[in-house]
Amino acid sequence: MSHWETNTTLDEIAAFLAGKERIAVLTHARVDGDAVGSSLALVRALNKATKTRRASAWYVGGAPNWLDQLAGDAPYHVLEGNKLPDIEPDAVVIVDTGSWGQLDALADWVRPRHDIASVIDHHLQGDPDVAPRLFLAKSCAAAAQPVCELALRVLGLKSPSELPTSIAELIYTGLATDTGWFRHSNVNAEVFELAGQLLRAGVDHVKLNAMVEQNDRPARLRVMAEALGSLELHDRERIAIMSLTREAVHRAQAGSSDTGGFSDLGLKISSVRVSAILTEVEIAGETVATKISLRSKSGPHMIDVNQVARKMGGGGHANAAGARIGLPVEQAKPVLLDAILQVERESK
To answer: What is 10-213's CATH number, 3.90.1640.10, 3.30.950.10, 4.10.1110.10, 3.40.640.10?
Structure first.
């Protein structure tokens, strides 16, 4: 059986894409800053290299309200309902995931196009049969980092500081958001070195932070209040669990784009080592499912939430991971708690 390991180089992926006329760039459902930044940065680089609009990004599961402002004239499509891309590409690039489950409705569209697909990801787990070409930068904080290296190859540049500002700001968005604006434990010297290079390329940090972090709809604050109101503490106040039922999201008049990014709220409590939020979602073919997002604190007695997520069919990183299980929130909660406690016992 194949393993989730790199089997190609960015040079080989760049060469494979060089002669392609229609390239679809995909990412995981319910996109975040890294998914948007890395996908659109690659789209811009591919199009700039040939001065054509040969590449476009395709998103499912909703999109943040700042997407249009960040994308500018980069071609992208947000697919509603069960719609799928209406093009026949000669290459597919999947960024920031390599998981069939995270591709959601796009999975069935990708399967018959397997031979022309490439994956550029940074997560510790994925499905190796998603694509024949896998570049997995598991030590990177964001998918935007390897995508930046690919963009340099596509454009024939040597340094991120040479990137057009319109591409540099997309890479920076991915890097900044997946590190919590440089607060999370995945920040290292390489992250700051790349950030510095991108700032030299003309990125306006204050502008991007305001666009992404200070651009919420009132509904997001209402649904955040619903999440905080559901807070439960377990295991001597070391585990924080919040939940959002479909009724709570409806009560807040919120959508899927309003509910992301709450998983680290529980980490503000000094005693908490693991924080999770469970969000009910409607999935085609299932009555209801629960999306689980996990965060943990680094340091002594750290709980590896990647291992927690793997027990529920998901994955991610040691301090940030996620999964989805086909149960409503109240039934998913004890499953999650058991998984956390089991990982904690196994680590001792």
So the answer is: 3.90.1640.10
